[in-house]
Amino acid sequence: MGADHLSGAAMLRIDGLRKAFGEKTVLDGLAFEVASGEVVSLLGANGSGKSTSLRCVVGLERPDGGTITVDGVTAKPGEAMPTVAMVFQKIHLVPRRSVLDNVCAGALGRLGLSRSWSVLAFPREVQAEAMACLDRVGLADRAREKAGRLSGGQQQRVAVARALCQRATVLLADEPVSALDPAASEQVMNLLRSLADDDGLAVAAVLHQPNLARRFSDRILGLAGGRLVFDSRSAEVTDETVASLYRPALEALEAAESAESAESAEMREYA
């Protein structure tokens, strides 16, 4: 684990974040912080607001209220902050383009789309920076290969390298290992941990694997109903604490299945 960051200055701070889709409230005054050099994992049942909170931070969703502050700068609603990058479960690389092409794309925010047609269109300094980012994730030797030829774990590491080429200080990861096998999951989580410890990034990750969250995180946030249920050091989060996050959703599912079964039985009785 990293050093004690709980009393340090926050690189990412969200306060009172609210978001609704129609009549469904997804975020209900959510607030949390992530410091430089810290890995924070978000746990919770589907629909608890984990991914939506990260999507609001990166500018993919426009919050209905609350504030998002990155390194002391408060974003306008829906604004994409240039030093915040995000990696996803679906990795969003261009399979037919080279690994280096994909990583150089992280620099487009400061170069413009006219430079995106080929790696040859990127300045040499960007190519050199992208190569350094690939070296950081252990894939410099695969730079000229097409991204689609890499394994899922390697592609996710390329996505992280692209985020580094964006010069991100805050790295968000939305279920980054859900589609990976255990060995690749370990590699990706070790990389995220290293980026916090060695490079000082603030890392916030949505995970569905409590054991990985406990092993690689400084803190774990539990979300339910768009609210923060707990914010605890990873070592303090017990199996029962985690189970309590998912129990209401399981009970609701069981109730729905029971009602459906009763309705089916009633229909058969009158058939």
From TrEMBL:
Where would I find the ABC transporter domain in this sequence? 12-250
SMART domains, per database record: AAA
- On the tree of life, the source organism's domain of life is Bacteria
What InterPro entries does the record tag this protein with?
A: AAA+_ATPase, ABC_transporter-like_ATP-bd, ABC_transporter-like_CS, MetN_ABC_transporter-like, P-loop_NTPase
Is the keyword Transcription in the record? no
> Which GO terms label this protein's molecular function in UniProt?
ATP binding; ATP hydrolysis activity
Q: Which PROSITE patterns match?
A: ABC_TRANSPORTER_1, ABC_TRANSPORTER_2
Enumerate the Pfam families for this protein.
ABC_tran
List, alphabetically, the SUPFAM superfamilies matched: P-loop containing nucleoside triphosphate hydrolases
Ordered alphabetically, the record's keywords are: ATP-binding, Cell membrane, Membrane, Nucleotide-binding, Translocase, Transport
Q: What is this protein called?
A: ATP-binding cassette domain-containing protein
Give the species: Nocardioides turkmenicus
